[in-house]
Amino acid sequence: MGGLSIWHWLIVLLIVVLVFGTKKLKNIGQDLGGAVKGFKDGMKDGSASADAPPAQVTNNSSTTKATDANTVDVEAKNKS
């Protein structure tokens, strides 16, 4: 009592196929598989970049002119 037998699952599967159709179920399965694969790839990329050594920061305070249009030169002053 309370458990579902194989016959119950087959009837549920038959009703789902009749309601949605096989093409719609195939598309849902492909979308779900692609989402899971993308998530796993993202997790691999995240752990690979976390293992990489951090980028070194250099302090060139003698240069005050920006050499690239996308860089901004900022000087920090210490409070005494």
TrEMBL record:
The chain crosses the membrane at residues 6-22. Keywords: Cell inner membrane, Cell membrane, Membrane, Protein transport, Translocation, Transmembrane, Transmembrane helix, Transport. It comes from the Bacteria. It is a single-pass membrane protein. Residues 56-70 have a biased composition (Polar residues). GO terms for biological process: protein transport by the Tat complex. Residues 43-80 are annotated as: Disordered. GO terms for cellular component: TAT protein transport complex. GO terms for molecular function: protein transmembrane transporter activity. InterPro entries: TatA/B/E (IPR003369), TatA/E (IPR006312). The keyword Membrane applies. It is found in: Cell membrane. Belongs to the TatA/E family. The Tat system comprises two distinct complexes: a TatABC complex, containing multiple copies of TatA, TatB and TatC subunits, and a separate TatA complex, containing only TatA subunits. Substrates initially bind to the TatABC complex, which probably triggers association of the separate TatA complex to form the active translocon. Part of the twin-arginine translocation (Tat) system that transports large folded proteins containing a characteristic twin-arginine motif in their signal peptide across membranes. TatA could form the protein-conducting channel of the Tat system. This is Sec-independent protein translocase protein TatA. It comes from Piscinibacter terrae. The lineage of its organism: Bacteria, Pseudomonadati, Pseudomonadota, Betaproteobacteria, Burkholderiales. The gene is tatA.
